[in-house]
Design goal:
368 residues; alpha/beta; six-stranded parallel sheet; 27% strand; binds zinc ion
Length: 368
């Protein structure tokens, strides 16, 4: 039996169930005992309907664990291996994977169905199938996932630390190292300093930015931003963030601006706080109905501002997970510091509230 936090209806608290049945891993699938799971804002976004997914669903997509069993045809994984979950499977063979864009792996198309690669799920509860978020479901203590959603890691990396890499770190650090083109000495602006925004900040520092302007409405998040490498803190709401970024960058605007919230007005601010010839990176997940009002076309032609979407930090997980762990081991990437609270799965609703109140970088569910 699996214990997991289940979203049964939008805008309802998650329900922790202990009676969930799990199948055997099918061909190409792996049974993973979850070691730890981060609580990410995208889990909240599924909970409130911003990201519409089929219900009931075991949420959680940022995790790490231990391989318990492998299905037919699985190579490269054996019981006892430690793994990080990738919330986008990366087959390595499809058109986009072959072009270095495994974050758009064509095998991910079934994820919106809430099941695994064949669209069906391996969990059953109260007589009905339970969907698995992003082919994972890390809010459960066991999962069956496609083997192409796993990246093997050394067994000496703590699983609670490794879990964070699966979404927030790959997305945030990847936005700075992969999606953007940050150069030594650049000025970077980061709008939104939650778990992912803090990782954009530390990624920008690793990329060589000398000025990192953090923008948020919460003092608590701006304090965390400073700990992760921000050099200037701007409290939005008190002051116009666009004017502040311009003032802090010799009137030019930032070389690169990251929007890490997913709101129309802040996305438009990010465009306006970017200098001529700079780039704007959209990292936050907006509601499906958010539409932007863009500045004059001239802005994109003669002023050559580049707009870049950033999905999963443009990460190639088999390359980037080991790279990020290496940066962690060299002391260049703060991962332990991202863990504000360690909780049990029963506390997941409290973790949602703490995130929305700006109290935490990350709450991490640690399983026995
Ligand atoms: Zn996430
Ligand atoms: Zn692929």
């Amino acid at each position: 039996m699996v214990t997991a936090a289940v979203l049964t209806e939008v805008d309802k608290p998650l329900e922790v169930r202990h009676d969930i049945e799990i199948a055997e891993p099918g061909p190409g699938e792996v049974l993973v005992r979850t070691g730890a799971s981060g609580v990410c804002h995208s889990d909240v976004s599924v909970g409130n309907g911003t990201i519409p997914l089929p219900l009931p669903m075991v949420l959680g997509h940022e995790g790490a664990g231990t391989v318990e069993a492998v299905g037919e045809g699985v190579t490269g994984f054996a019981p006892g291996d430690h793994v990080v979950l990738s919330f986008v499977p990366a087959c390595g063979e499809c058109y986009t994977c072959q072009r270095g864009q495994s974050y758009h792996c064509e095998k991910n198309q079934m994820a919106v169905m809430g099941g695994l690669l064949d669209g069906t799920t391996r969990l059953t509860s109260q007589g009905a199938p339970l969907h698995q978020m992003a082919m994972c479901g890390t809010f459960g203590d066991q999962m069956i996932v496609p083997s192409i959603s796993l990246v093997k890691i050394p067994n000496d990396v703590p699983l609670k630390v490794a879990a964070l890499i699966g979404c927030g770190v790959l997305t945030g650090v990847g936005a700075a190292l992969n999606t953007a083109d940050i150069r030594e000495g650049d000025t970077v602006a980061v709008v939104g300093c939650g778990g992912v925004g803090l990782n954009v900040i530390q990624g920008a520092k690793i990329a060589g930015a000398s000025e990192i302007i953090a923008i948020d409405t919460f003092d608590s998040k701006l304090q965390m931003a400073e700990q992760f490498g921000a050099t200037q803190m701007v409290k939005a709401g008190d002051k116009d963030p666009v004017g502040q970024v311009q003032a802090l960058s010799g009137g030019r605007g930032a070389d690169a601006s990251f929007e890490v919230i997913g709101l129309g007005p802040t996305m438009e601010q990010a465009i306006n706080m970017t200098r001529t010839g700079g780039e704007v990176i959209f990292v936050g997940v907006p509601r499906m109905d958010v539409v932007l009002t863009l500045p004059a076309a001239f802005t994109f032609l003669y002023l050559t501002k580049a707009l870049k979407g950033c999905w999963y930090g443009s990460s190639v997980v088999q390359r980037d997970v080991p790279k990020l762990l290496g940066l962690y081991q060299e002391g260049k990437l703060k991962l332990d510091e991202l863990i504000s609270r360690e909780i049990g799965v029963d506390d997941v609703n409290g973790a949602f509230e703490a995130m929305q109140a700006g109290e935490v970088a990350r709450s991490v569910i640690v399983y026995d």
